[in-house]
């Protein structure tokens, strides 16, 4: 058989450099160490700064590097395992929930969220913002969208504010019978608010986990959680882990 056009395409220079840099990170640098500036690194490896920048961006995407405000580019620690199993049947805020309620507002969600909730495009919903912290470091930010129909008794509650209101919404949501949930994971980039809360630069790679919670035959709530792609590793049911080198291994 003949060689396909794709097979004849040479490996991009930045991709080869990424492999060389990854080996250097394993042998010449330690976790948390600050890398030399781009000019010095480009000179060390004999490449253009544009090529170097592409390789560094790829290594950041793979979780090998972190860009930190006021610090520079550092060698990243191993990623934190995050369970995204869809078989768990818990409402947000129950059990061993690792999220911390930060605030709650009432506002019209984006058109995409409104479609998931099956609400009118101009209908206001309760929007709970929560943070997930690991070892003192924020690793994820969540927006939980809850229509008024899911928390009908909330207006009768003495109106708290901020985290107190967020906790009230969560408690009222748990009064419903949870029938199931579905979850989708995709790669994204950090917006201004998420970047600030997660101590990232705007545009940094993130993992976006969207979860729909079902009750009484309808979508009762939608969660959009943004995880730091440089520090989080998604795990599925405790059976498979994806580590920061991109290799799969079975979890114990």
UniProtKB/TrEMBL annotation:
Keyword set for this entry? Answer: DNA-binding, Transcription, Transcription regulation
CDD domains per record: WHTH_GntR
Q: Name one Pfam family in it.
A: UTRA
Tagged with keyword NAD: no
| Domain HTH gntR-type per the UniProt entry, residue ranges | 11-78
Q: Which InterPro entries match?
A: Bact_HTH_transcr_reg, Chorismate_lyase_/UTRA_dom_sf, Tscrpt_reg_HTH_GntR, UTRA, WH-like_DNA-bd_sf, WH_DNA-bd_sf
Q: Does the keyword Transcription regulation apply?
A: yes
Q: Which PANTHER family does UniProt cross-reference here? A: GNTR-FAMILY TRANSCRIPTIONAL REGULATOR (PTHR44846:SF17), MANNOSYL-D-GLYCERATE TRANSPORT/METABOLISM SYSTEM REPRESSOR MNGR-RELATED (PTHR44846)
Protein name as catalogued: GntR family transcriptional regulator
Q: Which organism is it from?
A: Streptomyces xantholiticus
Starting at the broadest rank, the lineage of the source organism is: Bacteria, Bacillati, Actinomycetota, Actinomycetes, Kitasatosporales
